[in-house]
Amino acid sequence: MLLSGPITVSLATLASAHPGATVKRQVSQLRDSYDFVIVGGGTSGLTVADRLTEAFPNKTVLVVEYGDIEYGPGNFDPPPAVPASRWTVTSLPNPEVNNRTAGVAAGQVVGGSSVINGQFLDRGSRFDYDSWQELNGQGSGSTDINWNWENLFPYFKKSVTLTEPSAELAEEYGYTWDVSSYGDSTPVYATYPPFQWADQHIMWNAYKELGVQEPKECANGDKEGICWVPTTQHPVTALRSHSGLGHYAAVIDTRSNYDLLVKHQGVRVVYPHKPGEDSGAPIVEVRSLVDDVLFNVTANAEVIISAGAFHTPTVLMRSGIGPASVLESAGIPLVLDLPGVGSNFQDHTGPPVSWNLTKPGDFHPVRSAMQDPAFAADAAAGFNETPSRGPYTLALGNSAVYVSLPHLAPDNHETIIANIRAIAANDTLAASYLPPDHRTSAPMIAGYQAQLSALADLFANPQSPSLESPFAAGASAVAFQLHPLSRGTVRLDPADHLAQPILDARIATNPVDLDLHLAHVRFLRRAGATEALQRYGAVELRPGPGVGDADDEALRAFVRQSATLSFMHPCCTAAMMPEEKGGVVGPDLKVHGAGGRLRVVDMSVMPLVPGSHLMATAYAVGERAADLIIAEWSE
């Protein structure tokens, strides 16, 4: 799709043009009650709010958001770009990686993490989402609601409008895409930028030499290969496109039933009576961040928690819904004993591989050109032109390689997979890799074993990527481990229930994670011997010639010390799985045992992190959830 007409203005501009229309800042501005109350105005939450207010013009929706309306600069905008507000949660020390801590960011702003992320709009492979269905297809919580790729793909398409690059750009950079994998009706925009660094081709050609395929499109469920990935930006201005713009600012003129309460915290949900089939929707307790006043909001239909992987479990735990032992230690009366709340934490991690190019190349510009004041000034001027041009349109970059374990480790992938299956088959061994308070929990052990079996199938599939390495320039790579086996926790601070949660990421507590890291690093190191890098005199910097490729212990030491411990993809802490396998929500996203009027809609519901960045999946989950809610309340 190609856009014409007025250029999209910022969310802040639109909001200020309609003072009091929907933005609320104090309790006195609220209605007596709402049909739907959404706790969290992030990527998924605003998607749901948009669709519900559209489908039900006579029903009211309130979104309670901790942050405020802010301008969200792109991932790579000219200075002095000021990033939007964010949470930074620092993990406890991780013993298996030299007691290092992981710092994990999440958006604290209207639009959530879609306002602060790298704008990289990739999807997982079809097998990632098929595994969700596999994990939900058994048990008492199973329904006819299917979350496999076939059922989720239409929501991926619906969630974004793709603007195709011009024929000239496609020829210049080699862009390929399949427009049928995208939609054209939602004002969340994605495109391919009018700029690439001149040395971007080095790593692309290296992976080609290693035998990696080049699919035309990687967003259609078939993902292994070297891929072009769209950027979430306006196709004319190159300004960041995010949920706050596409699902709030773009629709407020026509939605008198859509209220947004900013600078307020959804503290907990309260059931006047014990939750059950006839208990109705819970009351939402809300706290003002301005004066610390607490008040209640009544939902006539249901409450949707969409506060993200860190804060959705804390809302539930403050409500008395969670692991009994954790709630007891925090002094919170137990309402529902769900040990999976705040459990099953996953994120992507991985070490770097890089080379020094000792022979100059015949390409310009490269990133170092930004150190030239004249070049940097022209780049800034180009970004502010209409249409925008130059390096500042690039955001994170647009290319990545995705490779399956059988293809990157043909000699030892079967051993790694056999080790995973052996853990899955042994109750005691599987339990030993879980957090201590889960090692005697039958549901948590059973759920972890089911996950390990599903992961072993993913690793054995030559079309299911195990490794991602995004690249935009030069001769460097980073080994994203797409399917971690270790499981962490997000817990309330028992000394201050309103403080940031305590994250125990428990990185590499399952030792097979390190085996996977080694396989990934060894594959990436092979790129250094390709003609694509050797023509420029590539000399390995990391891990470096002192770390032998056959020396497992030296490579493990390198991974432990150098791996990035979070690529900012926290998820899975209120997993969609049967209750008897440690699940928190069912396929309808309703909280087990909570009476049917309490749902979770955000990245905490994923049982397994997909092999992708999370934004596209967050939009799709929001779209699917909205349809489920609309179908139920239209009856």
TrEMBL record:
<dbReference type="InterPro" id="IPR036188">
    <property type="entry name" value="FAD/NAD-bd_sf"/>
</dbReference>
<feature type="active site" description="Proton acceptor">
    <location>
        <position position="613"/>
    </location>
</feature>
<dbReference type="InterPro" id="IPR012132">
    <property type="entry name" value="GMC_OxRdtase"/>
</dbReference>
<dbReference type="InterPro" id="IPR000172">
    <property type="entry name" value="GMC_OxRdtase_N"/>
</dbReference>
<feature type="signal peptide">
    <location>
        <begin position="1"/>
        <end position="17"/>
    </location>
</feature>
<feature type="binding site">
    <location>
        <begin position="43"/>
        <end position="44"/>
    </location>
    <ligand>
        <name>FAD</name>
    </ligand>
</feature>
<keyword id="KW-0285">Flavoprotein</keyword>
<keyword id="KW-0732">Signal</keyword>
<feature type="binding site">
    <location>
        <position position="109"/>
    </location>
    <ligand>
        <name>FAD</name>
    </ligand>
</feature>
<keyword id="KW-0274">FAD</keyword>
<dbReference type="GO" id="GO:0050660">
    <property type="term" value="F:flavin adenine dinucleotide binding"/>
</dbReference>
<dbReference type="Pfam" id="PF00732">
    <property type="entry name" value="GMC_oxred_N"/>
</dbReference>
<feature type="active site" description="Proton donor">
    <location>
        <position position="569"/>
    </location>
</feature>
<comment type="similarity">
    <text>Belongs to the GMC oxidoreductase family.</text>
</comment>
<dbReference type="Pfam" id="PF05199">
    <property type="entry name" value="GMC_oxred_C"/>
</dbReference>
<dbReference type="GO" id="GO:0044550">
    <property type="term" value="P:secondary metabolite biosynthetic process"/>
</dbReference>
<dbReference type="InterPro" id="IPR007867">
    <property type="entry name" value="GMC_OxRtase_C"/>
</dbReference>
<dbReference type="GO" id="GO:0016614">
    <property type="term" value="F:oxidoreductase activity, acting on CH-OH group of donors"/>
</dbReference>
<protein>
    <recommendedName>
        <fullName>Glucose-methanol-choline oxidoreductase N-terminal domain-containing protein</fullName>
    </recommendedName>
</protein>
<feature type="domain" description="Glucose-methanol-choline oxidoreductase N-terminal">
    <location>
        <begin position="308"/>
        <end position="322"/>
    </location>
</feature>
